[in-house]
Amino acid sequence: MNFENILVISGITILLVWITPARWHKWVILVSSILALFWLQPSTPIRNLDFWFPLASISIVVLVWAMTRVPNEDGSRANLITTGVIIGIILLISLTRYAGPLCCITPTRPPQMRYILTAIVGIGFLLLFVFRYFSGHRYALAVVLLMLIFIFIILKADPFAKFASEAIRTLTKQNTNLASPFDLRWLGFSYLAFRLIHTLRDRQHGKLPSLTLKEYISYALFYPSLTAGPIDRVQRFVKDYRQPIGSRKSNTLQGGQRVLLGMFKKFVIADALALIALSPQNASQTTSTPWLWVLLYAYALRIYFDFAGYTDIAIGLGNLHGIALPENFARPYLKPNITSFWNSWHITLAQWFRAYFFNPLTRSMHKSKMNYPSWLTILIGQLSTMLLIGLWHGISWNFAVWGLWHGIGLFAHNRWLSWTRQRISPLEQKPVLSMGLKIGGWFITFNYIALGWVWFALPSPELAASVFQQLFSS
Amino acid sequence: MRENANQNQWKFYSGVLLKALALFIIVSFFLAFLYPFESIGKVSAYNNLFPGRTRLPYGDDPSKSYNLSLFNLAAMFASHRIAAGPKPDSEFRVILIGDSSAWGYLLPPNDTLTAQLNSKQMILRDGRELKFYNLGYPVMSLTKDLVILSEAMRYQPDMGIWLVTLESFPNDKQLYPALLQQNPNKIRALIHDYELDLSPEDPALIDGNVSLRTIAAARRELADLVRLQLYGVLWSATGIDHYIPEIFPTKQEDLAADLKFHIWEAPPFDSSELAFDILRAGHDVAASIPIWIINEPIFISSGENSDIRYNFYYPRWAYDGYRQMMQAQSVISSWHYSDFWDVVPPEEFTNTAVHLSPYGTSILVDAISSALPELLYQNK
Lengths: 474, 380
What we know:
The structure holds two protein chains of two kinds.
Chain A: H1 3-19, H2 25-40, H3 49-68, H4 76-95, H5 113-133, H6 138-156, H7 158-171, H8 189-204, H9 213-220, H10 234-241, H11 248-274, H12 280-285, H13 289-320, H14 338-342, H15 347-367, H16 374-392, H17 397-424, H18 431-457, H19 461-471
Chain B: H1 2-34, H2 37-42, H3 62-65, H4 73-78, E1 91-97, H5 100-103, H6 113-119, E2 129-134, H7 142-152, E3 159-164, H8 178-181, H9 184-194, H10 219-238, H11 276-286, E4 291-295, H12 316-333, E5 336-339, H13 358-379
Parallel strand pairs in B: 1-2, 1-3, 3-4, 4-5
Helix pairs in contact in B: 6-13, 7-11
């Protein structure tokens, strides 16, 4: 979301919250989320993809809802109304094709109505089929989960994304030689996939509450957290969602303040730091070691303020609707060790991986007949979790190394803790020594994390290696 | 209870908003009436946190050149190494003014004319070392050079070298640079003080009324000042202040059969439309310090229609006429003048008829450094 997007969205949100009666508020969330999905979708060089991607997001969400729903007879009429409203909005957006220069929802003109109607009917039949025969089916849930991971891999791995782009270009009769991985810019799919996988897994374990279609779509496509998280849990989201909106004044003050804070972090601090942050361009041009450290620290701060700013904006917009999205950052760079860092950096992502990957993996290793030593369980658990977190940013070697770098750091800290538990604990009683340990811990942690950003910022291994060499040369 | 708390919170934030608004209006009016951008521009991290730049800030593509073009002359000079501190006694300070050729377009900082002159480490008989400062700026207008010269005088130069070419002379070109249009008061002061043949009411000069001088209207200027400071980090880290693409369009060899130069279709060349008065004013601004005017080298084409034109800029008749007029004016006005128009071979020009390669620059450096001692001692 750029500056103008945020101003427009904040303004419209405040206006809607104040002018619509409280009983319509949930509809406001649903309609705004669907409109924002189309409006925020970036344009792509492939014809009409900026319409089909949002439609695909909605279809996948409805599909997963149909798969995961806990049968609830009372909600069927409400679900039908919701379906009608969604189809109505999509058809209204598609009509902007004929609004000429007034067209203002999608970045380019929507496709012809007959294609859209065919798609809606086709998707409708598919969903009815799934709804009738596969709802809650164990294997079907696993198939949908694998499908989400499959789409994710295609979008995040450049060679696959390019291949997919070529295939779509063939369908749209466009030049396949111009295919690029950047053609497939699917707004918010990463975060959407996390939310959907969370509900699929919770459904498999019988932990998913009964949700109407309106609640589920509002959760999965909630527009404040569409592009940059945080990754809320559906159980927590519906608790707020089902409450009355609360005091509009209080929500507006709280939310407005948070949005402004986020905009300051993102558009003043982060964007200023972006001018001087480490990049593939300036990394190869820098001739001075001290200044290279400055560029690296600027990158570390920039990425924090950028992401934390967007999170503040998301939380603030959520507050305007009376929904308290979870915090994603808690002063991560001030933490005295890397474990605390990962408890305060992109908190909802780390929690997601902990709940749906690390814990199940380490539990199964503990229960395994192989009798793994606990250190090996921790090593494998942390390395594989952090590797996946790295690859979530993009399937390329530099994100993999970044993930492993953090996995090694977490494992080293874990071993350090168990080694020092007996030896250092008595020292911690002495205030000066305790303070020294904390400051030393902070210094090492911050620099270890900052050095990790070298892998993150630079896509070329040779360049990253030369930067490391220069950082530590005299 | 909760309603009361909300009411108090609401009152508190309304108060904050009102006070912020009032403060914003006061600061805006303060800025609009005092317009202290010149003073703000003098506050610089250059020559403190960062080394001073070796040429004035100018950037076509800031993200690649780590440099940007701005209109605040005070900030431009404050970022230059000439503002590093008082002139040492051991230094004989020479400033170079001129267009993009003097600035060093398509040259890295260590290959510019001043960098190469400094590498000669020339020493005067009294033991002072000649230090050359690049105050060129990549637009062609003698008035722009005059403004820079007048600003540079506060840095105690001992001598000025002014690189000129005919394209900087036409009267209609004098006020076209945005740098001048955005500094109308300085231009008017020069017009008034030195009786320049320019109108102080020229519509090109942009006068900001009060509304244009508010903090909202001046946000771009403020942002440029901040960005200039931020780019100091990358200037310090990389030593890069200009993006030089690996491939660029080369100078035009084949020329149109066109005799036209600006408003002139053919000889005779009317000197009244050329800004010789600016050169005279430059000498007045410089007062007691010597100014050496150099007619800078140009590309001499041998391609199609080269019998009609020397290059893209100049038909032969106009340029030959200009050289004659320059020579005559110099004699009449007792100016130090050298004509180096043909000292650099054609292959040493890069993308235009005045931009030199590093080797081409070294040829000009040799010409300047050979002639310089005679001029210096003659002046004594």
